[in-house]
Backbone:
């Protein structure tokens, strides 16, 4: 069995132990409780914002909480002394939580719309958005010792990553907000419910820019992981 497969099995075990899987199901139920009372013709308008909110919970907050749990239980100290590489460790979290987030998005959309939405666009937007939120949550959690130290500083980056909502809703239509990488995933989520038709350049931007941005965040995460964890534990 490959190291990544082992890491995935461990990640599933940890997610179950920390009750994150239970929390994800509860989150999905809460979103349904919010959406179902809304008239059917208005659900499509609300759906992209709701799904983006769910991506923020599962992506940003779940991965940050996992890092703090692992710090508290010294799981990370053990990880850095094993043959498991950083990319395998982080990939296991990204794969696990992205799959969970996409499943929740599909569940919520199907429950509220049946099959009357564009599944590929929903999956693409949810996957890209979750990966960005995951990496952001991971990056912001590494320098801090506890959730209480992390929570207030984390408000700033999560607020920045949610700025595309202002543009998408028409409150502040400025091209500068296209620099925020979550703008692309939000465009795909809107197109999934026929709110807006994507042009070719928007579709290309919506895929390429988030992927490149995520690659940069991944490299930065490796450097911060080395600085704040491996160097402090004496790992190689």
Residues:
């Amino acid at each position: 069995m490959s190291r990544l497969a082992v890491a995935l099995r461990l990640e599933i075990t940890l997610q179950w132990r920390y009750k994150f899987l239970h929390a994800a199901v509860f989150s999905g139920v809460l979103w349904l409780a919010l959406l179902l009372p809304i008239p059917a013709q208005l659900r499509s308008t609300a759906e992209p914002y709701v799904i983006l909110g769910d991506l923020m919970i599962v992506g940003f907050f779940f991965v940050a909480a996992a890092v703090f749990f692992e710090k508290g239980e010294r799981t990370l100290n053990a990880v850095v002394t094993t043959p498991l590489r950083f990319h395998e460790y982080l990939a296991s979290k990204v794969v696990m939580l992205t799959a969970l987030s996409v499943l929740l998005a599909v569940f919520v959309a199907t429950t509220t719309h049946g099959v009357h939405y564009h599944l590929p666009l929903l999956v693409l937007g949810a996957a890209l958005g979750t990966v960005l939120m995951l990496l952001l949550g991971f990056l912001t959690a590494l320098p801090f010792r506890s959730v209480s130290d992390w929570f207030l500083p984390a408000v700033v980056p999560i607020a920045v990553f949610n700025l595309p909502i202002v543009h998408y809703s028409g409150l502040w239509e400025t091209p500068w907000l296209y620099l925020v990488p979550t703008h692309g995933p939000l465009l795909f989520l809107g197109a999934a419910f026929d709110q807006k038709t994507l042009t070719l350049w928007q579709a290309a931007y919506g895929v390429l820019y988030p992927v490149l941005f995520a690659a940069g965040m991944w490299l930065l995460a490796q450097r911060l992981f080395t600085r704040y964890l491996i160097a402090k534990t004496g790992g190689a």
